[in-house]
């Protein structure tokens, strides 16, 4: 279990080492290293997802480890409350950023092993604190540099606890 203590409340996460071993281990290592402490949820879209894990306060990008292999072909679906890895257009570019699905987002699931079909790897789920994630969608968002949907009042992961 991993608990994110945020300025809006606690979010408890259970990782799925059986279906996404590489991704779950990667996320846990970032958590154990304290990497997520001080990061913000920098992209929040009501009715879609809340993204965090790569930017510190002030939208300051953090340096990450090398990207990992996409495990989205693990049979898990981007359902409400699940965590998935954020990535670029390159299917195997995920490193530290993740998002929490606010609704069922099946269109993000694995379809095929090509650029359009890889999808986004689900590797865990929120087991307590989904009301905190829902609360994130009530904050006002706007543009910050090249980024859209940025909360105007920062949502900060103040502490990460790995159990």
Automatic annotation (TrEMBL):
Q: Which GO terms describe its cellular component?
A: cytoplasm
Q: Which InterPro entries match?
A: Cyclophilin-like_dom_sf, Cyclophilin-type_PPIase, Cyclophilin-type_PPIase_CS, Cyclophilin-type_PPIase_dom, E_coli_cyclophilin_A-like
- For this protein, the Enzyme Commission number is 5.2.1.8
Q: Which GO terms describe its biological process?
A: protein folding
State the UniProt keywords alphabetically: Cytoplasm, Isomerase, Rotamase
Instruction: Give start-end of the signal peptide.
Output: none
Q: Which SUPFAM superfamilies match?
A: Cyclophilin-like
| Swiss-Prot/TrEMBL catalytic activity | [protein]-peptidylproline (omega=180) = [protein]-peptidylproline (omega=0)
Q: What is this protein called?
A: Peptidyl-prolyl cis-trans isomerase
Family in the record: Belongs to the cyclophilin-type PPIase family.
Broad class of the protein's primary localization: cytoplasm
Compartment annotation: Cytoplasm
Residues in PPIase cyclophilin-type domain copies: 1-162
């Amino acid at each position: 279990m991993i608990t994110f203590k945020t300025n809006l409340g606690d979010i408890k996460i259970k990782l799925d080492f059986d279906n996404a071993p590489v991704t779950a281990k990667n996320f846990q290592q970032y958590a154990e290293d304290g990497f997520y402490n001080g990061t913000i949820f920098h992209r929040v879209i009501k009715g879609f997802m809340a993204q965090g894990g790569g930017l510190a306060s002030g939208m300051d990008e953090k340096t990450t480890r090398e990207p990992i292999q996409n495990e989205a072909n693990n049979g898990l679906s981007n359902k409400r409350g699940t965590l998935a890895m954020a990535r670029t257009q390159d299917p195997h570019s995920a490193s530290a950023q993740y998002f929490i699905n606010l609704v069922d987002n099946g269109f993000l699931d694995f379809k095929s092993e090509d650029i359009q079909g890889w999808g986004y790897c689900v590797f865990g789920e929120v087991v307590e604190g989904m009301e905190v994630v829902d609360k994130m969608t009530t904050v006002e968002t706007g543009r910050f540099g090249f980024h859209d949907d940025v909360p105007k009042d920062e949502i900060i992961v103040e502490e990460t606890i790995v159990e």
